């Protein structure tokens, strides 16, 4: 990769990570200056643009608002399937402006806990309180094979009280934040797995719910979209939403507010 | 509910092969009996329309299952969801039945066409909730399809004069058919209409209760 291409890629990565524009210009200018002085190839001096951007983000950090009122409270949740206990006395409290990660081995009950919080499954014992509107993104399914993305937006938007044009524009805008042009005329069954999951995620955030329950929503995402997804999560947190993410991937756990291990 | 109906209709209409089969399926029934004594083809085409539409409804109910919980979370009431789907299926049913009414009018001038139109209307009205009701009770498609197959097969082989056949959802079709084809007294018409409306109300209730149970707000969850 030549120097200009590397610097352009670094700029894109920093923008994706939501780094302030002024900070980005400063970092890129410093890197360009160093490369010019040293004559070293960019890849050997700084490594891949994505890795360097990540290091910058980790050092610059991101300003956080203090957590607000309780948005989701799950108390004393028990659930068994047949004789197999899946959840035993799980507690989860998430406030406005917080991100909670639910982690655990396969079959540990992560998706079940999320479905209980969404009210789709009843626990054997326990209660869930939700303050505000709820958005839910399942791990798979949740879309209609023969509808276009725009039609999904209109359908979900109508339930949230949004007009057609507003729902369509809102959906397309949120899709663009995941680097996806949702104005395609292809029905959902013709979308790739990752793109279909982007549709799933956009449907969950339509209408700006206060509480977001996301069950490994990034399955099938390319690396750039994965980064975009987590930037969306941080921006939702900054906007005061309460977010619960089921995740196997541990590289973001240092940036979440709560970790619940099942 | 209008948006749900519109999207359900779009889903069905995009399945061109399915639409073609739905349209031609009853024709096979009609032509297979056209050489029999007067009016048998009319009886069988009505059953064919009923079978085609109830099968479409069965699979439409199954396909909707993955989206309905999140639509409920989005703010729809349960009756919006099943009501919209029914509206879409009835629209498809009218589109399937209309050409056959015209065919019968042209090909069988001797039957009571008003009564035949009534059979078609009741068939469309009953078929859609029949398919959705089977889908609600038997969520797996193979089991649901086999039950639907059994119902329609019994409808064709059982003696309509027997009391057990009144337990089948399309019995009204053969009863009103006798009035339309054999020009009998109004008793056949009245019994048929009562049976059709009764099954329509029963199946609608099953669909509504099934949806209410499946999409109910769970008691452990308090939305504040």
What quaternary form is this?
heterodimer
Q: Could you give the distance between the termini of chain B?
A: 25 Å
Query: How much is the average pLDDT of chain B?
Result: 90
Q: What is the rounded distance between the termini of chain A?
A: 44 Å
Q: What percent of residues of chain B are in strands?
A: under 5%
Given helix and strand content, the structural type of chain A is alpha/beta
Q: Widest sheet of chain A: strand order? A: 5-6-7-3-8
Which strand-content bin applies to the residues of chain A? 15-25%
Q: What count of helical segments of chain B does DSSP give?
A: 9
Which structural category fits the helices and strands of chain B?
mainly alpha
Describe the secondary structure blueprint for this structure.
The complex is a heterodimer of chains A (262) and B (224).
Chain A: H1 3-16, H2 21-38, H3 42-46, H4 49-60, E1 70-81, E2 84-95, E3 98-103, H5 110-117, E4 125-130, E5 134-137, H6 149-159, H7 164-176, H8 193-205, E6 211-215, H9 223-238, E7 242-246, E8 258-261
Parallel strand pairs in A: 3-7, 3-8, 5-6, 6-7
Antiparallel strand pairs in A: 1-2, 1-4
Chain B: H1 2-13, H2 16-32, H3 40-64, H4 68-74, H5 78-107, H6 113-137, H7 141-157, H8 171-182, H9 186-214, E1 221-223
Helix pairs in contact in B: 1-5, 2-3, 3-5, 3-6, 3-7, 3-8, 5-6, 6-7, 6-8, 6-9, 8-9
Can you describe what's shown?
The complex is a heterodimer of chains A (262) and B (224). Chain A is built from nine helices and eight strands. Chain A is α/β, with parallel strands linked by helices and 262 residues long. The radius of gyration of chain A is 20 Å and the shape is globular. By secondary structure, chain B is mainly alpha-helical. The longest helix of chain B has 30 residues, at 78-107. Chain B is elongated. Chain A binds chain B through residues 116-123, 126-131, 134-136, 138, 141-147, 151, 154-156, 158-161, 187, 203-204, 206-207, and chain B through 3-4, 7, 10-11, 14-15, 63-64, 66-67, 69-71, 73-76, 217-224.
